[in-house]
């Protein structure tokens, strides 16, 4: 892996790959995969599913390489959008629903173990609620609160403007709270006495 | 039903919990992704037409200047053969004037061979 290639931008490496340079693909794989798989894992909550989405997203990148227009978008921006779309599709198709019974009876019932399980149940419940949101709301909320991107960047990723992003996030969060409010007891919020 | 934290704070806590999750990047995944890249590269090389080496005929054609030159050459050759088979009178007269008349040269001494003389 040459030092010169390592210094190149994602778009330059993608152009090199389109020209047949395998080393460029190697650098892009190591540079982009951690971010891609992390985004997918945060949305899906499952490592194997996240890896499938990461592989699918990178495959799309390899295929689009010859037609890539560096002036139109950043590679990372494009990948955020592709991963978000793939994850929302996968969540909808799976029709996922958390199995709280599976985590309700821990073998070890010490407070810390119970707290961890409760945290996991809440995270899973949030992902399930996210999957039930309208697609654009789910994408805006996940990009803002799971990826911690700024609204202008989210607007670019979603090909819209900042005001629309703000609106999508606000409506999405209200909907999430409404969905999770019906499950306060099973998620243990009533026990959280400060 | 009462929540001790505000709904928004509770939601943010869950987001923070998800963000803090460890996400390993396994070598097997990197290998799968590179295998895909190799496949795409191989497919692209198969579909891209490669410049083949020209054959002997093409090289000869190039040497004489391509098809236009070849057709001119062919026409000149046909004309030459025809002139040889049926020369116009002007050509015959021209050769007579150059060589001073018809010269007959026996290729075989047929009369001698057949003993017709003497």
What does this structure look like?
The complex is a heterodimer of chains A (194) and B (118). Helices cover 72% and strands 0% of the residues of chain A. With 194 residues, chain A is mostly helical. Residues 97-106 of chain A have low confidence and may be disordered. Chain A folds into two domains: 1-95, Orthogonal Bundle (Rna Polymerase Sigma Factor, Chain: A), CATH 1.10.1740; 99-194, Orthogonal Bundle (Arc Repressor Mutant, subunit A). Chain B is mostly helical and 118 residues long. In chain B, 66% of the residues lie in helices and 0% in strands. Chain B is built from six helices and no strands. The radius of gyration of chain B is 46 Å and the shape is rod-shaped. The model of chain B has no long low-confidence stretch (mean pLDDT 71). At the A-B interface, helix 3, helix 4, helix 7 and helix 10 of A face helix 1 and helix 2 of B.
Radius of gyration of chain A: 19 Å
* Strand segment tally of chain A: 0
- Compute the CA-based radius of gyration of chain B: 46 Å
List the domain count of chain A as a whole number. 2
CATH superfamily assignment of the largest domain in chain A?
Winged helix-like DNA-binding domain superfamily/Winged helix DNA-binding domain
Average pLDDT of chain A, rounded to a whole number, is 86
Sheet having the most strands of chain B: none
Largest interface: A-B, 46 and 32 residues
CATH class of the largest domain in chain A: Mainly Alpha
The low-pLDDT segments of chain A are 97-106
Order of helices and strands of chain B: HHHHHH
The amount of helix of chain B comes to 55-70%
Q: Can you tell me the overall shape of chain A? A: elongated
Assembly annotation:
heterodimer
β-strand amount of chain A: under 5%
N-to-C span of chain B: 151 Å
Q: How much strand content do the residues of chain B show? A: under 5%
